[in-house]
Design a protein that fits this description.
- 37% of the residues are buried.
- The protein has 230 residues and is an alpha/beta fold.
- A six-stranded mixed beta sheet has the order 6-7-8-3-9-10. The chain has a four-stranded antiparallel beta sheet with strand order 2-1-4-5.
- α3 (95-105) packs across α4 (110-123), α3 (95-105) packs parallel to α6 and α4 (110-123) packs across α6.
- Helices cover 37% and strands 27% of the residues.
- Bound molecules: adenosine-5'-diphosphate (2 copies).
Amino acid sequence: MNMLLFDHVTKRYPDGTRAVDDLCLEVAEGELVTLVGPSGCGKTTTMKMVNRLEVPTSGRVLLNGEDIAGHDPVRLRRRIGYVIQQVGLFPHKTVLDNTATVPVLLGERRTAARRRAAELLELVGLDPAVYGGRYPDQLSGGQRQRVGVARALAADPPVLLMDEPFGAVDPVVREHLQNEFLRLQAEVRKTVLFVTHDIEEAVRLGDRIAVFGQGRVEQFDTPATVLGAP
Ligand code: ADP
Ligand code: ADP
């Protein structure tokens, strides 16, 4: 069963820009798909149509077989993890409370949410005993991105959207984060859309790679096939 389906999706912005043009894409449950291509080819727009930060001009986006057009965007966003290049953490909340925010909003008890948050911090490579009580400005860039990933996983969302999550850290740290993310994904098996303009990153992380041209997917295949293509 596909978890995410783009069915002839087109997005035209009010100024006339056709950012996404008749896009069709199917992502299986538990699959990590990287969206790769040059700047401006529609990757971010595609991703934002999954959590209704953007709405398609035509076509449908289906989540687990259901057209998300009928879903309340706020609830939808709580069910879909979202990690961007510079994650916005709450500056006056500790790392632990930042991570536990959404479950608490969803009505989970604070103690249980914090216990789970500590497990997730461990999973993303941050010792909760050391980092749980720190504030965001006491972390390195790489550590903040790790907290962003832990926080996105806290509501146990079926789908995770990642938009250049490791794009703003230096190359050594990035490789570190990529490796940790692969280990994490092997454990949690989320359905992931991962935007990057770095083909190496796309190949390294993706079960399949969607190679974007102007507003379209030009190739959708495994890393080996994409690399082998002329
Ligand atoms: P990518 O993520 O591949 O860099 P985007 O989805 O951000 O591409 O952008 C695709 C196209 O849509 C670009 O031409 C961009 O300038 C345009 N675009 C993106 N957001 C908007 C917007 N809010 N209004 C108008 N045009 C936009
Ligand atoms: P990472 O590989 O996670 O990005 P860095 O190499 O940037 O980590 O940082 C190395 C160490 O320096 C980390 O253990 C981190 O705790 C510490 N550190 C970085 N920035 C700060 C800061 N602003 N305040 C306190 N400690 C910091």
